[in-house]
Write a structure and sequence with these properties.
This protein is α/β, with parallel strands linked by helices. Helices cover 35% and strands 27% of the residues. The chain has a six-stranded mixed sheet with strand order 6-7-8-3-9-10, with helices on both faces. The chain has a four-stranded antiparallel sheet with strand order 2-1-4-5, with helices on one face. Helix 6 links the parallel strand 7 and strand 8. The two termini are 30 Å apart.
Length: 227
């Protein structure tokens, strides 16, 4: 289980997160939902140790990783896709994926890992030799998600995966996430659209002004909040 236990985060003297707690089991898709500025990205970055909490803890399969540096989170099975994707523009789609495998120390299994990624996202084969600069928004999202998969995580943190995408691409990515969860990977998706998240997630945490104000099944959360 990936567990966040009552974290408080202050940035630039401003308290951004106040007692945020959540958990993600392997094989499920969980939503962290709320308006822009609610604290979704800060929560994900704190899980990855880009921010250090003043109080509270982060656990990966029972191990307290709160004070460990970011690279150890990857070592212990947590992977992160930032909102701005960070797809390298002058590397091809496949080279972007290859870099993730290289940094994870698994180049001896590169072909096997690449094939597993292509099985989930076969569309990437069509543009595997196209540089990131020339990829569409949806294609960049696929490459960014492929890099998350390429490190073979236990848990994946995805920040605004669906932002600005056409409905057909959103549906395609939702299908891919369900396949990924089916392989035993726990997924935490930060998403602004609660209706969209309710179509994908088994559970939702709704965050507002740095606090979780509702949690439960999509139906339970929708009944508690005002959209």
């Amino acid at each position: 289980m990936l567990k966040v236990d009552s974290i408080y985060v202050r940035i630039g003297g401003v308290e951004i997160l106040r007692g945020v707690s959540l958990n993600v089991e392997r094989g499920e898709v969980v939503g962290l939902v709320g308006p822009n500025g609610a604290g979704k990205t800060t929560t994900l970055k704190t899980i990855m140790s880009f921010h250090r909490p003043e109080r509270g803890s982060v656990y990966v399969d029972g191990l307290d990783v709160t004070r460990m540096p970011p690279y150890t989170r990857v070592k212990h099975g947590v992977s992160y896709m930032p909102e701005d994707l960070r797809v390298f523009p002058w590397l091809t789609a496949e080279e972007n994926i290859r870099l993730a495998v290289l940094l994870s120390g698994k180049m001896n299994r590169y072909k096997e890992i690449l094939e597993k990624v292509y099985n989930v996202l076969p569309e990437i084969r069509r543009f595997s030799d196209r540089q990131g600069y020339y990829l569409s928004g949806g294609e960049k999202r696929m490459v960014a998600l492929a890099r998350v998969l390429a490190v073979e995580p236990k848990y994946a943190l995805l920040d605004e995966l669906f932002e600005g995408l056409a409905p057909a691409i959103v549906e395609r990515l939702m299908k891919a996430l369900k396949e990924i969860a089916g392989e035993g990977i726990g997924i935490l998706v930060a998403e602004s659209n609660v209706i969209l998240a309710s179509k994908l997630c088994t559970r939702i945490y709704y965050i507002e002004r740095g606090e979780i104000i509702a949690s439960g099944t999509p139906q339970e959360v929708l009944a508690k909040i005002t959209i």
